Amino acid sequence: MDRRTFISGGAVAAATVATACGETGQDTSGAPAAPNINRGVTRLRMVTTWPANFPGLGTAANNVANYINRMSGGSLEVRVYAAGEIVSAFEAFDAVSEGTADMYHGAEYYWQGKSPAFNFFTAVPMGMTAYEIMGWVEAGGGQALWDELSAGFNIKPFQAGNSGHQMGGWFKREINTLEDFRGLRMRIPGLGGNVLRELGGAAVTLSGGEIYPALQSGAIDGTEWVGPWNDLAFGFYREAPYYYGPGFHEPGSCLGVGINKTVWDGLASDHQAIIASACRTANNISIAEFQYQNGIALDVLVNEHGVELRQFSDEIWTRIGTIAEQVVADTGNADPFTRRVYDSYLAARDSMRSWGRISEMPYMVQRERVLDR
């Protein structure tokens, strides 16, 4: 299927509905037999921002589609198109908004050019962890704001994956001081890129499939991507030996599904419930997979490929924290609606920080102390 064939229909045409009804007969007693009615099948096209079947990201999109297909008993059929198969990664939002596709799976900060508020529904520097952003969206008012934001672009959004805490990146040279960031060409999207620019570096936005060639050719000096599981799959260790973590830019990156709102509003209520449930299930599975697989992959990177693990210095962290606070504030105050999202985000983050400060943080410190003794 080529691009022209794919985009020739509008939103309603893209969600193809086929209905078949059998005839009502009679059994041998003369009583009417049960009608043989097959419910109509609604077919939806999902475009993604990921390479086909890519571990954790591409497979999260596949999971959403599979859960929808199975939970609906086949009355909903979702077909997944990877980045570049129909539209490029960064065209996915417009394809769904305009109705040339029905759904996308991607990272919301890719759409920051539409509204800076989208950043808060993926990740911001020094922002929420995976569990915290789940808490805000599910229980702290974030979903209502996300719905309002996306509705302006004819889209209904859902959480549908989370990569957990991301690493700080792969570098061809050591990053020991703030001076080492000057002139550094690094693939880093979203507001993390703004922080890098303030540090004197050059932030480059590339889709997943473009990163390795750019690193290999020397077009970039370093890259962040996700974490050990995904980074191992891309083989970045072959081009950049220094692996820094943790990352400051994406402490818990929410992945989203966006559905064309015209299509969404036209679905039966049970189909809407199935899609919402499928996205929630995919989100939970994604967090579990990343948590487990990152540990497995890290062992491979260090013990089989000799990757050097590094951490940014306290001096670097302090400077990043100061810059990040201003970058996020500038973004949050960009316009009245984004300010509403920003205020809600900060209130939720600060509330959960107070709990994390006396729960997970001291527990993890003590667990490591006891297990490492």
TrEMBL record:
Na(+) binds at W225. This is TRAP dicarboxylate transporter-DctP subunit. PROSITE patterns: PROKAR_LIPOPROTEIN. PANTHER family: EXTRACYTOPLASMIC SOLUTE RECEPTOR PROTEIN, PTHR33376. InterPro entries: DctP_fam (IPR018389), SBP_TakP-like (IPR026289), TRAP_DctP_sf (IPR038404). Substrate binds at Q166, R187, E224, E250. GO terms for biological process: transmembrane transport. One of its GO terms (cellular component) is tripartite ATP-independent periplasmic transporter complex.
